[in-house]
Give the backbone structure.
Amino acid sequence: MKAMRLRRRAAITARFERKEFRGYARILAVTEADAEAYRRILPQSSRVVAIPTIFDVAAMPPIPDPGGHRMVFVGAMVHRPNNDAMIHFIRQILPRIRAEAPDAELTVVGRDPSAELLALAGPDVRIIGPVSAIHPFLEEAAISIAPLRFGSGVKVKVLEALAYGMATVTTSIGAEGIDARHGRECLIADGDEAFAAAVVDLLRKPELRAELGRAGRKMMVEKHSAEVVGPYARGVYREAIETTGKRT
């Protein structure tokens, strides 16, 4: 029944998009995959342009590796995929990690953690609610994790960790729409055993953490920084204004 409802909502949304988007000079997507999906359903597909999510990477200096075996996850727990990811991780994946790395620790940062998630807190599992700044929690962690099992859109939490030069383990869902490659800019693993193995591998290898961290930050500078994407975005806006003669 849920699948049927989702298909119906998807069909309604597609009809709305095809109708409403006709009145716009440009349709902006944040990934090329999204842009291509819109081009398939819209007339005049040249109006669809991909502009990546922009980060002020220059204002996000690389975070030094503190060593140790602490992992960090950042995300609002009111968002169901985040809450699900951490409950499942603590129950199913963390025990597998501790079998190989008994001193592994976890910090979960995000507002509105559910009662079910809070109940899983312990000496080595900290569940932190809303914070004014996430940087202190990133600084104390050796790696960033994003074990998402479902969800949509670009995961800003993953991009943010890469921008800070943090070694990151995520899933295929977590890496959706991100131009990061497994073994190059991050580790991508699906399934409990594979995810646990990737985390253990990264916790044990500071040289691999450093290598992934440098590559991930380089990717962010080259493909998401304001210095690179900003001029391109301004060019898109300028061209749209010149084409339509409007500033709306």
About this structure: The chain has a mean pLDDT of 93. The first strand starts at residue 27 and ends at 29.
